[in-house]
């Protein structure tokens, strides 16, 4: 009698239908492997929220099964949730050189020590329970990015991580196409691949092309050069340093995360800093403008980042002036377009020359476009496919691409976070789901800000609030103090005295009504106040501030 | 002895260093002409604000000098502030056919009647005091857009309004290049021109090209077609209707502003609706999918607009399903990218096919790019130039363009709202400024929400609030009720009871301290409570809710 084949379960917990908080669980019998552990940034409606992490209810429930966490690369949407997750599930973490360096930094900031972190390098194979994981070198907008080939008793899973194909990479290390070809030949059961640029035709340009642009810019100007880029884009920083070196300029590194990454990358050998090229920001005025390059944070227009503060005259050490040439070696992440525009305008107003993506080739993407994705699909030749790392439109387009290449529709799973895809050698299907979703982090609180709190913040943000306080005698039930009205974020009180006086009358009348009907139930008193005031205020102002009646008894 | 020449003053009050709230005053001796009267949409930080209008302090101060308001076209950023401004300065308003139709609608909505509105047509010349204004037909993304040639004793001003050059316009009426040539030959003192696309090389494509795309789409599908576009883009709507007519489809118009504009434009003859093509939304299910086109609002992902509600299953009459083809015949206005993306993803998830700008030629801009701007500069040959209608980077680039064409730098004024440019036949210079800025409109309140209210809303939005109420005996100064704590938008109270209990202790201790030092001054009591609680809460939660201590005496 044939035994029922054991199923491999693939359970994405983040990263689908979004760009952010990537995390996937692979489960075979009673062993779980976790791939990536990222955060995402709050949506505009998530007022006051700092970051968003995946809901790991499923992992906590099965914590004794978890063998470890393997990381594809060091971007925040792949490692940012580690400090929170490791507090609940303390398992070994495996990552490449720079990836682990950034993880160590992050855990240090959270004052977390004595965790099991293991560095691996491309070509290494690690065994975690029944899973055998090989790390494969890829190209991305951060060094040391890896794809993972995960061997299981059911078959091999190839997870690309985030990748592009760069035929002329900065560090000379092209994505290991030979390895993908080899693995594809041996047979791959399932591929999970990066869908971010699935809508874009053609191929991503090589990182080297930006270096060419830098050379042209540096060669042709005597101005002080300021380059804003993603701190994690070490290869971009490398090219800035090489252009600076070639044209005899010193480098100032500006911005906390930029300084951190440059240090870590330099120590680990992921960045080759030419000797004596870096000077301290305080030494800058010892040099002419044409001898200086400042590499800085702020490419996304983040108000607190270095470049934004320079642009708004808020930076203690750097003043933007005519004679500055600012390069945004970046692209605005969706949602940040206006912030970036604001900084660009401020820089122009200060007389700087500003170069950005729409004016010159100063940025290339780190994600594969359609031709690169097609190559990956053809090399790997997987039986099943799950598009990952994208909004729905990206996943859908990527699924369509796979279909155009000949994959049967039923072998392609365009799913949501929490879906369980069950695979055996013979079949693949969606077999259910686990709890999934997002946990909001605000200050020290993890998960304690939910819909109600957000809803209240939204209400307060829109129309402010009115607090009505009245003290009632315990014996007689009559008002012995108040009603006092305090408002914030509603109207400018000094100009609205009449409104406040009338509002108090409205409250008194509502309470008198209740008194006449001998109502003493506080909840009823409060709703009477709230209803009366709500109608009054809307009629007078067409605004709906939050109304908080407070009754005290004395 | 020569008399001092009277100066012409040009005073922009809105539209510079922003895209929005366009308004300019022209002043000669004791006469003022106002050009356009627009609103702008609130920035993200302007919580709860509905719209923003120009600060017209200067106009109110000089109201008896104002001869009238002339309008270039019917977009909100050119007419949207009229209901508010006319309440303060009731002067005649002049505009073209559709422009005035939209203004009438708007004033009706604000229940404003008996205002002096006068329709003019291209070629008409009106005399307002010393100003003689000729309306000149242009192409833009709304019909009946005009440039204005304003004759003054000092010389002619040419204001382009918003424009592009369309050699194959939908209504057959190309921008009146002959008139610009003629006026240029006669001599133009000053040109003020649209800078929106000054950074873009080449030319804007003709509106007709979108019609070609529509034909291709309509010809090749049997699906129900839904087209989202700007309600004001009547020529786009015209092309949708013509493609629908050609391929035997009925039209449903959806969304309040879309229905309004289609009605007004149809009545005025700016839109030619094929007979019997429009059906009511309730008749839709009498037809097969391939016989239907829905023209709808929601191209900017506005949550309350029709398409967004269809996408989130919130629309009472239309459900998005497989078999729908949705076209976004638009481009996301900066700031709206994520909103649009969200709707696109929702539509895809419902199984619809979605086409948008990055995938097909379904939209063209309404603003001139560099080649068109150069043509305008060369035809008009002005002596002086003020770039308008753009953020600083756009104005700067446009100024640079004028310089590249040979205009002396000192004749180009890249200025801010409120700046006075003084012109005579012999010189042009910046001669000072007037009050200018923005007025925030929230509900019925105009200008009463200022920095303090916004700052409070921001604080409440970030970390919520805590109200502490305590009643003190008038005689003894001791607490006779409370402290009670009410929080909103801070923590989920049911899970934070310990925190609330400790917080009350902190408050009691602070009050006891004050009691011991015999402090009875309320302001001191309140700051003691606030300081103690602030430190406590930050230590426990790393959050800073607004703290509102309320003391009652009984």
Automatic annotation (TrEMBL), chains A, B:
Record has DNA repair as a keyword: no
Keyword rRNA processing: yes
Residues involved in Zn(2+) 2 binding: 78
Subcellular location: Cytoplasm
Chief place where the protein resides: cytoplasm
Gene Ontology CC terms, in alphabetical order: cytoplasm
Residues bound to Ca(2+): 48, 50, 442
Positions with a binding annotation for Zn(2+) 1: 73, 75, 77, 140, 162, 389
PROSITE patterns the record matches: UPF0036
Listed GO MF terms: 5'-3' RNA exonuclease activity; RNA binding; RNA endonuclease activity; zinc ion binding
Transmembrane segments: none
Protein known as: Ribonuclease J
């Amino acid at each position: 009698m044939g035994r029922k084949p054991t199923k491999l379960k693939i359970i994405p917990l983040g990263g689908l239908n979004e760009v952010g908080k990537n995390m996937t669980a692979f489960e075979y019998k009673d062993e779980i492997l976790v791939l990536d552990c990222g955060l995402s940034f709050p949506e505009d409606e998530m007022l006051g929220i700092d970051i968003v992490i995946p809901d790991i209810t499923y992992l906590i429930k099965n914590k004794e099964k978890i063998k470890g966490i393997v990381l594809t690369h060091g971007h925040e949407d792949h490692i940012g949730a580690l400090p929170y997750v490791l507090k609940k599930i303390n398992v070994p973490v495996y990552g490449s050189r720079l990836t682990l360096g950034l993880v160590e930094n992050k855990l240090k900031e959270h004052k977390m020590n004595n965790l099991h972190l293991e560095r691996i390098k491309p070509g290494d194979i690690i065994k975690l329970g029944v899973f055998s994981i090989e790390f494969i070198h890829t190209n991305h907008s951060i060094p040391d990015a890896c794809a993972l080939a995960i061997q299981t008793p059911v078959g091999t899973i190839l997870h690309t991580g985030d990748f592009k194909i760069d035929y002329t990479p900065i560090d000379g290390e092209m994505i290991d196409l030979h390895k993908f070809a080899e693995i594809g030949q041996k047979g791959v059961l399932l591929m999970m691949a990066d869908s971010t640029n699935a809508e874009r035709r053609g191929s991503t340009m090589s990182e080297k092309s930006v270096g060419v642009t830098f050379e042209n810019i540096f060669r042709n100007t005597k101005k002080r050069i300021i380059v804003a880029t993603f701190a994690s884009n070490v290869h971009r920083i490398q090219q800035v340093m090489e252009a600076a070196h070639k044209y005899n300029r010193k480098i100032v590194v500006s911005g906390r995360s930029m300084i951190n990454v440059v240090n870590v990358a330099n120590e680990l050998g992921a960045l080759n800093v030419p000797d004596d090229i870096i000077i301290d920001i305080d030494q800058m005025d010892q040099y002419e403008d044409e001898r200086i390059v400042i590499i800085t944070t702020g490419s996304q227009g983040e108000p607190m980042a270095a470049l934004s503060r320079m642009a708004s005259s808020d930076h203690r050490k750097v003043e933007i002036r005519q004679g500055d040439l600012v390069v945004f070696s970046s692209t605005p992440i969706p949602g940040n377009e206006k912030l970036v525009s604001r900084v660009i305008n401020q820089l122009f107003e200060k007389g700087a020359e500003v170069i950005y993506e729409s004016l010159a080739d100063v940025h290339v993407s780190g994600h594969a476009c359609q031709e690169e994705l097609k190559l990956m699909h053809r090399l790997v030749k997987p039986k099943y496919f799950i598009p990952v790392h994208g909004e729905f439109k990206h996943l859908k387009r990527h699924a369509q691409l796979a279909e155009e290449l000949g994959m049967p529709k039923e072998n392609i799973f365009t799913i949501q976070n929490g879906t369980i895809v069950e695979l055996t050698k013979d079949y693949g299907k969606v077999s259910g789901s686990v709890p999934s979703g997002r946990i909001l982090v605000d200050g020290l609180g993890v998960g304690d800000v939910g819909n109600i709190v957000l809803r209240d913040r939204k209400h307060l943000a829109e129309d402010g609030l009115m607090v009505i306080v009245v003290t009632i005698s315990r014996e007689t039930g009559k008002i012995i103090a108040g009603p006092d009205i305090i408002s914030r974020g509603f109207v400018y009180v000094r100009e609205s005295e009449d409104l406040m006086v009338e509002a108090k009358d409205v409250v008194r009348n509502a309470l008198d009504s209740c008194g006449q009907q001998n109502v003493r139930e506080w909840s009823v008193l409060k709703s009477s106040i709230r209803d009366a005031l709500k109608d009054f205020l809307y009629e007078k102002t067409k605004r709906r501030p939050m109304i908080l009646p407070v009754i005290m008894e004395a």
